[in-house]
């Protein structure tokens, strides 16, 4: 088949594909809603949720994780485009990381030294490290679906960012249940859970996002 | 060489909104440029081999055209896809290639292409499609029929022909990759 004939063939295919943003909303929002419901019915929200939402140090968890999730989602949408790796800006992710480390440092300084270890280890480390990755599955899968429909030219990076996005949002949701309000706990263990998910997502992305 | 002043954005925007004529014009406008890029990068593949790679690039940009953000310029998007597919094609043919994107700016435009090689020829891949898809592809691509004519010949609705054509092109892209590898 000559190239001119191929062009004629391609031009005849006018079936419209939905824009990526649209697909993102259609896939990610239901995934997040399901994650919230899973948490609600599985573990329940914390009893003092309303009080916690008025406590800055507790709300900071949701804000930090949510900000990471949103910044990474936007970045993932960019990396779904072929020229994305050239135009993507990393500073929003950096800003969230710096803010998280700032909160961690602040907590380290203001927590009495004999209470630091207890605050860091907490009581629910295992639940946290299991639940955040579980809640991440659907949002991360939704983001991988978007990337699959896009044209990813940096699969490892795109997979990593999708992992950060999905697990960041999942961590923000998990914070509705978790009662550990010390940054020594949440920056450490939420952070670890998020990084774990991001790494797995990167490895999956590197294999599955080629085209 | 006269710079191809970018009338590409409005064309692709119209194409993505469903304008087949604008899309054909877009493809005709970019093809010589892409051919020039592929030839400049793949001299050792021969002209026919380059035409294979060019067709792979065209198929890829077709199936990913919805990833172009209509508020952004077309060229970076187009070159990123082209680069990706060229690297891919060379890897599949057992060659390594390093392709800085900036290099794309100054390549010569190549207007005419030879027939593609026998090995990767689309005609062969079309034979691997199911009977109806193959008929649609032949009718429109090789015989120049319209969607409506094809639908009438196969007693299918225009919509069904479009869906079948889109699926067939997706399958062709996959078949091609596998076949070359």
From TrEMBL, chain A:
- Asked if the record carries the keyword Transmembrane helix, the reply is yes
Cross-referenced InterPro entries, in alphabetical order?
NrsF
> What keywords appear on the UniProt entry?
Membrane, Transmembrane, Transmembrane helix
Any Pfam family matching the protein: NrsF
Membrane spanning stretches: 24-47, 59-78, 90-109, 124-146, 158-177, 183-206
Transmembrane: present as a keyword of the record?
yes
UniProt protein name: DUF1109 family protein
The organism that produces this protein has a lineage beginning with: Bacteria, Pseudomonadati, Pseudomonadota, Alphaproteobacteria, Rhodobacterales
Automatic annotation (TrEMBL), chain B:
* Superkingdom: Bacteria
Q: Which residues form the RNA polymerase sigma-70 region domain?
A: 31-95
What are the protein's UniProt keywords? DNA-binding, Sigma factor, Transcription, Transcription regulation
What would you give as a GO molecular function for this chain, any one?
DNA binding
One Pfam family recorded for the sequence = Sigma70_r2
Every RNA polymerase sigma factor 70 region 4 type domain range:
123-172
Q: Where are the transmembrane segments?
A: none
- Matches recorded under NCBIfam families: PRK12512.1, sigma70-ECF
The family classification in the record reads: Belongs to the sigma-70 factor family. ECF subfamily.
Cited PANTHER family: ECF RNA POLYMERASE SIGMA FACTOR SIGD (PTHR43133:SF58), RNA POLYMERASE ECF-TYPE SIGMA FACTO (PTHR43133)
Stated name of the protein: Sigma-70 family RNA polymerase sigma factor
Q: Which organism is it from?
A: Pseudotabrizicola alkalilacus
């Amino acid at each position: 088949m000559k190239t001119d004939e191929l062009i004629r063939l391609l031009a005849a295919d006018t079936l419209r594909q939905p824009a990526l943003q649209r697909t993102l909303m259609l896939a990610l929002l239901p995934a997040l809603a399901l994650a919230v419901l899973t948490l609600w019915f599985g573990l329940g929200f914390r009893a003092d949720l309303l009080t916690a939402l008025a406590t800055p140090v507790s709300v900071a968890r949701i804000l930090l994780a949510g900000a990471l999730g949103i910044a990474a989602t936007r970045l993932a949408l960019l990396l779904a485009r072929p020229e994305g790796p050239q135009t993507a800006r990393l500073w929003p992710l950096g800003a969230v990381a710096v803010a998280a480390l700032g909160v961690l440092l602040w907590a380290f300084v203001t927590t009495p030294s004999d209470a630091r270890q207890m605050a860091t280890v907490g009581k629910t480390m295992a639940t946290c490290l299991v639940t955040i990755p579980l809640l991440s599955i659907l949002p991360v899968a939704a983001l991988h679906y978007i990337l699959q429909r896009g044209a990813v030219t940096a699969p490892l990076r795109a997979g990593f960012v999708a992992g950060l996005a999905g697990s960041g949002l999942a961590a923000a949701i998990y914070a509705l249940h978790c009662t550990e309000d010390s940054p020594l706990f949440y920056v450490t263990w939420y952070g670890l859970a998020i990084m774990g998910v991001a790494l797995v997502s990167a490895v999956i992305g590197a294999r599955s996002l080629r085209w | 060489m006269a710079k191809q002043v970018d009338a590409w954005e409005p064309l692709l925007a119209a194409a993505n909104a469903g304008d087949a004529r604008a899309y054909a014009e877009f493809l005709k406008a970019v093809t010589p440029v892409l051919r020039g890029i592929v030839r400049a990068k793949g001299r050792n593949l021969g002209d026919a081999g380059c035409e294979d790679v060019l067709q792979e690039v065209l198929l890829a940009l077709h199936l990913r055209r919805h990833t172009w953000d209509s508020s952004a310029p077309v060229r970076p998007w187009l070159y990123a896809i082209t680069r990706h597919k060229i690297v891919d094609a060379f890897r599949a043919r057992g060659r390594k290639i390093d392709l800085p994107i900036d290099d794309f700016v100054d390549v010569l435009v190549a207007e005419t292409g030879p027939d593609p090689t026998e090995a990767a020829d689309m005609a062969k891949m079309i034979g691997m499609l199911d009977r109806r898809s193959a008929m649609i592809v032949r009718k429109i691509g090789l015989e120049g029929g319209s969607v409506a004519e094809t639908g009438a010949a196969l007693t299918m609705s225009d919509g069904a022909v479009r869906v079948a054509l889109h699926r067939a092109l997706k399958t062709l892209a996959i078949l091609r990759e596998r076949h070359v590898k």
